[in-house]
Amino acid sequence: MKPLILLDPGHGGIINNIYQTPGKRSPIWSNGSQLFEGEFNRAITQGISQILTLHGIENKIIVPEREDISLQTRVNRANHLAFQYPNHRCVLISVHANAGGGSGFEIYTSRGQTHSDIIADHLTRAFRHEFPNKPLRSDYSDGDSDKECDFYILRKTKMAAVLTENFFMDNEIECCLILMQPQGRQKIIDYHVQGILAWVQGGK
């Protein structure tokens, strides 16, 4: 079966210089810079989409708008697309930047052993390859590295689904040197693409 990759850029973008999701932003750093998570998430998903298209892999960004689209609408769009492509292996990847103190990368799936764990493993290995010296925030209590959570977009979508948290936007080093830099963003895009390609080639 052909793959179909659904990409979800979390939260809202910037419209008329107004950021759409309260709180989803970094502090204003000493150099005057500030990260808005919705802008970051959109840049990453657009980069992933462009490279997947070059590889001939069908993909859809489920929130092309800059506005903050509700979780229910995101889920409905993903499920509708999966219904429209019944002969495809479908996976949804929701892209975010983390906050709340800390460093590194983590990936979430819904609870229990599902096909989501397979794509999560591929993305985790690709992250380690691109960022060998950065922390992997993992939970091996169930035998794999992903964390399990009841996030709405993971519970309600009718396909394998993962949510990536890409470094911490309230960590000045990670925000200014990775999340806000073209080279850092490209490496984040690349690890997503490499994980997806490994999943596609694995045939599961």
Characterise the protein shown here.
With 204 residues, the protein is α/β, with parallel strands linked by helices. 40% of the residues lie in helices and 21% in strands. It contains 6 helices and 8 strands, in the order E-E-E-H-E-H-E-E-H-E-H-E-H-H. The chain has helices at residues 37-54, 71-84, 116-130, 152-156, 172-179, 182-202; strands at 2-9, 14-15, 18-19, 58-61, 88-98, 105-109, 147-148, 160-168. Helix 1 crosses helix 6 and helix 3 packs across helix 6 (182-202). It is globular.
Q: What's the short version?
A:
This protein is an alpha/beta fold and 204 residues long.
CATH architecture: 3-Layer(aba) Sandwich
**Ends distance:** 10 Å
- The run of helices and strands is EEEHEHEEHEHEHH
Percent of residues in beta strands: 15-25%
CATH class: Alpha Beta
Low-confidence stretches: none
Shape: globular
Largest sheet: 6 strands, mixed
Enzyme class: hydrolase
Protein name: N-acetylmuramoyl-L-alanine amidase
Organism: Photobacterium kishitanii
Domain MurNAc-LAA: 75-197
